[in-house]
Amino acid sequence: MYLKLSVIAALATFATAAPSTTTTAAGAPAAPSSSPSVPASLIPLPAFSGTLVGVYPPQDKTAPTDTPLVKQWLQELNLTAIPTWPVVPFTAAGDPQNPTAIPAASCDWTETNCINKDLTTCPLGVWGLTYDDGPTEFSGKLYDFLDTTDQKATLFYIGSNVIQNPALARRACGAGHHIAVHTWSHNPSTSLTNEQFVAEVKYTEMAIKELCGFTPTYFRPPYGDIDDRIRSLLWAMGYTSTGHMTLEHELYQNTVDAAIANLPKVQATWKTMPVSACMNDAHPYKEKNITLATMDGAKTGVTNNSTTSSTAAASASSTASAGSSTASGSVSHSTTGSGAVVNVAVSSVAVLAVAAVTLGQMMLL
Ligand SMILES: *[C@@H]1O[C@H](CO)[C@@H](O)[C@H](O)[C@H]1NC(C)=O
Ligand SMILES: *[C@@H]1O[C@H](CO)[C@@H](O)[C@H](O)[C@H]1NC(C)=O
Ligand SMILES: *[C@@H]1O[C@H](CO)[C@@H](O)[C@H](O)[C@H]1NC(C)=O
Ligand SMILES: *[C@@H]1O[C@H](CO)[C@@H](O)[C@H](O)[C@H]1NC(C)=O
Ligand SMILES: [Zn+2]
Question: Which residues form the NodB homology domain (predicted)?
Answer without folding.
Answer: 125-365
